[in-house]
Request: fold
Amino acid sequence: MLTASHRRWRTIALLATLFTAPAVLAHAHLKGQYPAADANVTASPQALTLNFSEGIEPQFSGITVSNSQQQIIKTGAVKRNEKDNTQMIVPLEEPLTPGKYTVKWHVVSVDGHKTQGDYVFSVK
Ligand SMILES: [Cu+2]
Reply:
C-alpha cells in the first residue's frame, strides 16, 4: 500500500540519491536490510542487520534508531558478520514496541570512504 507519507518518503529518498549519487557510486551502498525498508514486521527483531555493497569498518560505522516521537532507541555495539564483512549487525537492547522507526546509518567502507542514509520500518 502506498500511503501519502510513504510516497513522500520515496520522493525524499530519490532526491537524496540524485544529490549524492556521483560521490558514492564506488562506495558502500546499502543493498538490503532486516527488517526491510518500509516493512511492517509482526514482532520486534532482536537485532537490525544491514547489508552493504562493500566491506565496512564496524568501529567507524553505526546506526541511530528513533521512534515516531524522535526518542532514541538503545542499541548495542556494532558488529560485523564474522563471515561476511559487508554485513553490519546491531543488537537492540530492548524489544521495540509497536510503531514506526527511523534508522539512520553511517558507514566507513574498507576503502575508507564514508556513506550514510536512512530508512523506516514499522512494528505491528
Ligand atoms: Cu569507496
